[in-house]
Amino acid sequence: MKQLISTNDPTIIPFARALLQGEGIDCFEMDVNMSILEGSIGVFPRRLMVADSDYDAAVTVITDNGIEAYERP
Q1: Sheet harboring 46-50: ordered strands across?
Q2: DSSP letter at 3?
Q3: Which pairs count as long-range contacts for 33-39, CB under 8 Å and 24+ apart, including other chains?
Q4: Structure confidence at residue 55 as a pLDDT band (50, 70, 90)
Q5: Which pLDDT does position 33 carry in this prediction?
Q6: Cβ-based neighbours of 42, under 8 Å, separated by 6 or more
Q7: pLDDT given for residue 47 in this prediction
Q8: Rounded to an integer, what distance in angstroms lies between the CA atom of residue 18 and that of residue 43?
Q9: Where is the DUF2007 domain positioned along the sequence (predicted)?
Q10: DSSP readout, 9-72?
Q11: 28-41: string of b/e by CB count within 10 Å (b at 16+)?
């Protein structure tokens, strides 16, 4: 799996998931429990992961809709 998005914004992940599901791309949200435990103050970002084979298509879908894809430093 590859990381597609990493964000503290609670609106980005659901929007990206809806876009990807609309295109038939499966995704998995990580760090949800850690984000909830810290009290939603935005310290720990949530991550959205996709299969390696779907990564390029997923990047295209989210960037076409104004969401920045995660880029490794």
Answers
A1: 2-7, 46-50, 27-30
A2: E
A3: none
A4: very high
A5: 74
A6: 8
A7: 92
A8: 24
A9: 1-64
A10: -TTHHHHHHHHHHHTT--EEEESHHHHHHTTSSS-S-EEEEE-GGGHHHHHHHHHHTT-PPP--
A11: eeeeeeebeeeeee
Domains of the chain: 2-64 (3.30.70.790)
Residue 29 · residue 16 · CB < 8 Å: no
Give the dihedral of Cα atoms 57, 33, 44, 23; nearest 10 deg: 10
pLDDT digits (tens, 9 = 90+) for 1-54: 999 999 988 899 999 999 999 999 999 999 877 756 666 566 778 899 999 999
Instruction: List the structure tokens of 35.
Output: 């984000």
Torsion sign (Cα): 50, 52, 55, 57: negative
